[in-house]
Amino acid sequence: MYVSLNNGVVAAFRWVVIGLLGVFVVGCSSYPPAPSAAASPDYNYIIGPGDNVNIVVWRNPELSMSVPVRPDGKITAPLVEDLVAMGKDSSTLARDMEEALGKFIRDPVVTVIVTGFVGPYSEQIRVVGEAAKPQTLPYKQKMTLLDVMIVVGGVTDFADGNSTTLLRTAEGNKQYGVRVGDLIKRGDVSANVEMKPGDVLIIPRSWF
To answer: Least packed by Cβ within 10 Å: which of 46, 68, 90, 149?
Structure first.
């Protein structure tokens, strides 16, 4: 009697678990598919901590140099201390440099060239979950899902790639479904979509 009762409890529990998993799977697949085109044609790269900037001051080589953007988002250069670089494009930073240097030299002409390309945290692409190498990477114009998956080395053997969620912070954390499994295992190019700055890819573990 005890054994049959115990088996009945186990069976009931098994069906409860299966039901919950079914709800979970349906919930994961309920997100709309991500749009194939997402890149903005007027996108400008924004400087972030960890970038390097080459500052060229015309006819003033002693003021020209390469400097890193500090963790606080500022740079220090000859005659210019603690100038905010984070959140600006290269042209805006060049104009700010000209304004700062204008206190010491006449009509400075500055060109800023960004190298290193880390970008601000708000624009970095993040890949978490069952990626082979979960990581954060800088956004690049026209970057696609396939580009991201190549960098992270694909998915693990335990990944449920076709249940991957794309969290789009640029659209108020709206969530989309993307078919990573079809893209990298079947070569289905229709599953490839463009990324946006700040996107987060969440690759779940398969339950089966």
So the answer is: 68
Q: What residue spans define the domains of the chain?
A: 31-42+121-203, 52-115
Q: Provide CATH code, domain 52-115.
A: 3.30.1950.10
Q: Tell me the whole-structure pTM to 2 decimals.
A: 0.81
Q: pLDDT at position 28, please?
A: 44
The closest alpha carbon to 89, from 42, 44, 55, 43, belongs to 44
Which tokens is 15 given?
A: 């069906």
Of 7, 8, 1, 93, the C-alpha closest to 44 is 93
**What mean pLDDT is predicted for residues 163-172?**
97
CA gap 206, 35 in Å, rounded: 24
Cα maximum dimension of the chain: 98
Torsion sign (Cα): 7, 10, 12, 15: negative
User: Residue 72 — very low, low, confident or very high, per pLDDT cuts 50/70/90?
Assistant: very high
Tens digit of each residue's pLDDT (9 = 90 or more) over 2-50: 344 345 444 444 443 334 333 334 334 479 999 999 989 999 999 999 9
Task: Give the SS3 label for residue 90.
Answer: helix
85, HSE (Cβ side, Cα atoms, 13 Å): 32
Is residue 124 over pLDDT 90?
yes
Superfamily holding 31-42+121-203: Outer membrane lipoprotein wza domain like (3.10.560.10)
* CA 136/CA 14 separation, integer angstroms: 38
